[in-house]
Design brief:
Maf protein, elongated, single chain, 42% helix, alpha/beta
Protein backbone atom coordinates (compact mmCIF):
# COMPACT_ATOMS: atom_id res chain seq x y z
CA UNK A 1 0.00 0.00 0.00
CA UNK A 2 1.50 3.34 -1.03
CA UNK A 3 1.26 6.61 0.87
CA UNK A 4 -0.07 9.64 -1.01
CA UNK A 5 0.92 13.27 -0.51
CA UNK A 6 -1.89 13.73 1.98
CA UNK A 7 -0.28 11.17 4.26
CA UNK A 8 2.94 13.12 4.65
CA UNK A 9 1.87 15.39 7.56
CA UNK A 10 0.56 12.34 9.41
CA UNK A 11 3.81 10.41 8.86
CA UNK A 12 5.83 13.37 10.10
CA UNK A 13 3.55 13.64 13.14
CA UNK A 14 4.07 9.96 13.95
CA UNK A 15 7.83 10.37 13.61
CA UNK A 16 7.88 13.39 15.95
CA UNK A 17 5.55 11.70 18.43
CA UNK A 18 7.72 8.57 18.54
CA UNK A 19 10.82 10.66 19.25
CA UNK A 20 9.05 12.66 21.98
CA UNK A 21 7.73 9.57 23.74
CA UNK A 22 11.14 7.89 23.62
CA UNK A 23 12.73 10.89 25.31
CA UNK A 24 9.99 11.16 27.92
CA UNK A 25 9.97 7.59 29.14
CA UNK A 26 13.59 6.68 28.49
CA UNK A 27 13.21 4.22 25.64
CA UNK A 28 16.32 3.48 23.62
CA UNK A 29 16.78 6.11 20.91
CA UNK A 30 16.85 4.94 17.33
CA UNK A 31 17.56 6.69 14.07
CA UNK A 32 16.98 5.76 10.44
CA UNK A 33 19.34 7.09 7.79
CA UNK A 34 18.47 6.90 4.11
CA UNK A 35 21.18 7.04 1.43
CA UNK A 36 20.40 7.45 -2.25
CA UNK A 37 23.11 5.04 -3.38
CA UNK A 38 24.33 1.49 -2.95
CA UNK A 39 27.87 2.23 -4.15
CA UNK A 40 30.44 1.12 -1.58
CA UNK A 41 32.42 4.38 -1.06
CA UNK A 42 29.21 6.27 -0.31
CA UNK A 43 27.73 3.54 1.88
CA UNK A 44 30.95 3.22 3.89
CA UNK A 45 31.28 7.00 4.17
CA UNK A 46 27.80 7.36 5.68
CA UNK A 47 28.46 4.65 8.25
CA UNK A 48 31.85 6.09 9.18
CA UNK A 49 30.42 9.58 9.66
CA UNK A 50 27.49 8.46 11.80
CA UNK A 51 29.77 6.26 13.87
CA UNK A 52 31.68 9.43 14.79
CA UNK A 53 28.63 11.68 15.13
CA UNK A 54 26.24 9.32 16.94
CA UNK A 55 27.10 10.80 20.38
CA UNK A 56 26.29 14.31 19.12
CA UNK A 57 22.83 13.10 18.11
CA UNK A 58 22.35 11.23 21.40
CA UNK A 59 21.89 7.93 19.62
CA UNK A 60 24.00 4.77 20.09
CA UNK A 61 25.55 3.84 16.75
CA UNK A 62 24.24 0.29 17.18
CA UNK A 63 20.67 1.68 17.20
CA UNK A 64 21.05 3.45 13.84
CA UNK A 65 19.41 1.75 10.89
CA UNK A 66 20.69 2.42 7.36
CA UNK A 67 18.59 2.18 4.21
CA UNK A 68 20.28 2.34 0.80
CA UNK A 69 18.50 2.68 -2.54
CA UNK A 70 19.72 3.57 -6.01
CA UNK A 71 18.14 6.89 -7.01
CA UNK A 72 18.83 8.65 -10.32
CA UNK A 73 20.61 12.00 -10.13
CA UNK A 74 18.91 13.54 -13.13
CA UNK A 75 22.26 14.91 -14.35
CA UNK A 76 25.10 13.53 -16.47
CA UNK A 77 26.95 10.44 -15.29
CA UNK A 78 29.83 12.78 -14.48
CA UNK A 79 28.55 16.30 -13.76
CA UNK A 80 30.81 18.98 -15.20
CA UNK A 81 29.72 22.07 -13.24
CA UNK A 82 29.12 22.93 -9.60
CA UNK A 83 25.44 23.58 -10.34
CA UNK A 84 25.00 20.10 -11.78
CA UNK A 85 26.89 18.45 -8.92
CA UNK A 86 24.62 20.13 -6.37
CA UNK A 87 21.52 19.37 -8.43
CA UNK A 88 22.51 15.71 -8.64
CA UNK A 89 23.07 15.42 -4.90
CA UNK A 90 19.77 17.13 -4.07
CA UNK A 91 17.74 15.17 -6.60
CA UNK A 92 19.08 11.93 -5.17
CA UNK A 93 18.23 13.00 -1.63
CA UNK A 94 14.73 14.22 -2.52
CA UNK A 95 14.12 11.14 -4.68
CA UNK A 96 15.03 8.87 -1.78
CA UNK A 97 12.77 10.80 0.57
CA UNK A 98 9.85 10.40 -1.83
CA UNK A 99 10.57 6.70 -2.33
CA UNK A 100 10.63 6.17 1.43
CA UNK A 101 7.30 7.96 1.77
CA UNK A 102 5.76 5.73 -0.89
CA UNK A 103 7.00 2.65 0.99
CA UNK A 104 5.93 4.02 4.39
CA UNK A 105 9.53 4.13 5.67
CA UNK A 106 10.13 6.75 8.33
CA UNK A 107 13.59 8.19 7.67
CA UNK A 108 15.20 10.76 9.97
CA UNK A 109 17.75 11.97 7.43
CA UNK A 110 17.71 11.53 3.67
CA UNK A 111 21.12 11.83 2.03
CA UNK A 112 22.17 12.35 -1.58
CA UNK A 113 25.81 12.37 -2.69
CA UNK A 114 27.37 13.46 -5.95
CA UNK A 115 30.89 13.94 -7.22
CA UNK A 116 31.96 15.67 -10.38
CA UNK A 117 34.18 18.16 -12.19
CA UNK A 118 34.07 21.93 -12.40
CA UNK A 119 36.35 24.39 -14.17
CA UNK A 120 37.71 27.75 -13.05
CA UNK A 121 38.97 30.44 -15.42
CA UNK A 122 42.12 32.23 -14.29
CA UNK A 123 43.65 35.12 -16.29
CA UNK A 124 47.20 34.02 -15.42
CA UNK A 125 47.00 30.23 -15.47
CA UNK A 126 44.12 29.62 -17.87
CA UNK A 127 41.42 27.05 -17.21
CA UNK A 128 41.87 24.65 -14.32
CA UNK A 129 39.52 21.73 -13.69
CA UNK A 130 38.86 20.29 -10.24
CA UNK A 131 37.19 17.21 -8.79
CA UNK A 132 34.93 17.65 -5.77
CA UNK A 133 32.42 15.60 -3.76
CA UNK A 134 29.18 17.01 -2.36
CA UNK A 135 26.52 15.78 0.04
CA UNK A 136 22.92 16.90 0.51
CA UNK A 137 20.96 16.19 3.70
CA UNK A 138 17.32 16.83 4.61
CA UNK A 139 15.26 15.91 7.65
CA UNK A 140 11.98 16.91 5.89
CA UNK A 141 12.14 20.37 7.50
CA UNK A 142 15.67 21.64 6.93
CA UNK A 143 18.14 20.94 4.14
CA UNK A 144 21.89 21.43 3.92
CA UNK A 145 24.81 20.95 1.55
CA UNK A 146 28.43 20.15 2.34
CA UNK A 147 31.54 19.66 0.22
CA UNK A 148 34.89 17.95 0.34
CA UNK A 149 38.08 19.68 -0.62
CA UNK A 150 38.84 19.98 -4.32
CA UNK A 151 41.71 18.41 -6.22
CA UNK A 152 43.14 19.55 -9.54
CA UNK A 153 42.52 17.13 -12.40
CA UNK A 154 45.03 16.85 -15.28
CA UNK A 155 43.84 17.58 -18.81
CA UNK A 156 44.41 13.96 -19.84
CA UNK A 157 41.58 13.00 -17.48
CA UNK A 158 39.32 16.05 -17.63
CA UNK A 159 39.22 16.74 -21.37
CA UNK A 160 37.51 13.49 -22.48
CA UNK A 161 34.87 14.08 -19.79
CA UNK A 162 34.33 17.78 -20.51
CA UNK A 163 34.07 17.08 -24.24
CA UNK A 164 31.40 14.47 -23.58
CA UNK A 165 33.42 11.58 -25.01
CA UNK A 166 33.62 9.46 -21.83
CA UNK A 167 32.49 9.58 -18.22
CA UNK A 168 35.07 9.92 -15.48
CA UNK A 169 34.66 6.30 -14.38
CA UNK A 170 35.75 4.98 -17.80
CA UNK A 171 38.66 7.42 -18.07
CA UNK A 172 40.06 6.63 -14.63
CA UNK A 173 39.67 2.87 -15.18
CA UNK A 174 41.84 3.22 -18.28
CA UNK A 175 44.43 5.34 -16.51
CA UNK A 176 44.66 3.04 -13.48
CA UNK A 177 44.37 -0.11 -15.61
CA UNK A 178 41.73 -1.36 -13.19
CA UNK A 179 38.01 -2.04 -13.35
CA UNK A 180 35.33 -0.11 -11.46
CA UNK A 181 37.74 2.27 -9.72
CA UNK A 182 34.87 4.55 -8.65
CA UNK A 183 33.47 1.77 -6.46
CA UNK A 184 36.80 1.51 -4.66
CA UNK A 185 39.48 4.18 -4.20
CA UNK A 186 37.99 6.42 -6.87
CA UNK A 187 39.74 9.14 -8.86
CA UNK A 188 40.72 10.67 -5.52
CA UNK A 189 42.73 7.57 -4.65
CA UNK A 190 44.40 7.39 -8.05
CA UNK A 191 45.45 11.06 -8.04
CA UNK A 192 46.66 11.07 -4.41
CA UNK A 193 48.25 7.60 -4.46
CA UNK A 194 45.60 6.48 -1.96
CA UNK A 195 46.33 9.24 0.56
CA UNK A 196 42.72 10.41 0.09
CA UNK A 197 40.09 7.95 -1.08
CA UNK A 198 36.71 8.62 -2.66
CA UNK A 199 35.09 7.45 0.56
CA UNK A 200 37.08 9.96 2.61
CA UNK A 201 36.06 12.80 0.28
CA UNK A 202 32.40 11.93 0.88
CA UNK A 203 33.01 11.65 4.63
CA UNK A 204 34.16 15.28 4.72
CA UNK A 205 31.27 16.39 2.53
CA UNK A 206 28.68 14.63 4.70
CA UNK A 207 30.22 15.79 8.00
CA UNK A 208 29.97 19.35 6.67
CA UNK A 209 26.40 18.92 5.41
CA UNK A 210 25.26 17.56 8.77
CA UNK A 211 26.71 20.47 10.78
CA UNK A 212 23.41 22.41 11.09
CA UNK A 213 21.77 19.26 12.46
CA UNK A 214 24.33 18.32 15.13
CA UNK A 215 25.32 21.93 15.90
CA UNK A 216 22.07 23.88 15.41
CA UNK A 217 22.94 26.70 17.82
CA UNK A 218 25.77 27.95 15.62
CA UNK A 219 23.35 28.19 12.72
CA UNK A 220 20.64 29.99 14.70
CA UNK A 221 18.39 26.94 14.53
CA UNK A 222 16.22 26.38 17.60
CA UNK A 223 15.49 22.76 16.79
CA UNK A 224 17.81 20.54 18.81
CA UNK A 225 19.30 17.31 17.49
CA UNK A 226 17.66 14.08 18.60
Amino acid sequence: MQANQGDRPFLLFLQSLSTMISKKIGWIHSMVIGLASTRKPKVDAVRAVFRRLAPKFGVPFEEIKFIEMEIASGVDETPTSLNHILQGAKRRGIGLREMCQERNHLVDYSIGMEGGLFSVEDPLFGTQTFLQSWAYVTDYRLESFGASGAIAVPDSISEPVLLGKEDLGAVIDGLAKQKNVRSNQGTWGVLTQDLISRQESFELALTSALAPFYNPASYGIRTKPR
